[in-house]
Design a protein that fits this description.
The protein is mainly α. The protein contains 10 helices and no strands. The protein starts with a helix and ends with a helix.
Length: 329
Amino acid sequence: MNPTRLLRRVVYAALALASVVVVLGAYTRLADAGLGCPDWPGCYGMLGVPESDEQIRLAEARYPGIPVEPAKAWPEMVHRYFATALGLLCLGILALAWSKGQRLFIPFTLAGLVIVQGAFGAWTVTLKLWPQVVTAHLLGGFATLSVLWWYVLSLRPAIGVIAVPKKWAQLALVAVILQIAVGGWVTSNYAALACPDFPTCHGQFIPTMDFERGFDFAQTIGPNYLGGQLDSDARVAIQVVHRLGAVIVLVVVGLLVFHLRSRPFGWALGSVLCIQWVLGISNVLFDLPLLVAVLHNAGGATLLLMVLTVNVALGQNQEPQIHNRNHSR
């Protein structure tokens, strides 16, 4: 088999697995299963979830005061199994690229990301869902998925000319990344339902908010952050910033869609953008249904990859121009 084709297939497999890991991570977080296992990397000191009477007695003896809940422990462990497989696959990509003499920047980046992700996965449990770590872990998952997608695009033929201002595409990418970061801060601080209504918040367009506490990134580690420790005004501040960010993304990415309106990709990007808004509003109006919340997370990942695709295409458009200028000299 052609070495490039083999590498491409392995990267495709890793991309598919990373997509599953991101969705599983969202499900685990939103189902409040992040502490389904009180230790890491095992579960109550076991490779699997304790389920027999003897295993449960042993687990509760090891961790007194922390009852075994298989319904929450299994999502956490399944997420770990898939994440471990992804890590091994990314390390395999690095080894394969190295042996085939391929460019190593992206494979090294992937290897570094999955190693850091493993550390954040452990800290998520050992630091009892400290929001800074949970948000960083979420961003690391999205970063891994994005780098894999970038690798896929780099291994394929050029996407083609896209007539979009490069700075606007970059602005759209930054806006989406920041919105995902704020969304992670929303979920890690349990602020998704801080405003029970839409478009107002507690019946007001400018509710009482505590930005200082809501965005205190140096907050201390609590004994257990499950359920959150912020008061209502701080959570409202986080939720309102997320809503304002959604408006900014709508405008910035919407203008990107306008530039791409003559292409099917533009219509697809616009559709994902609209679906994200519908899912976000539905989370509020229907009291955060688990399926809708997970789909909203997956939609954010899809939107990120689509905007990244535009930026990669613009970079590919510039490469022949740079080559031609150098050749003319």
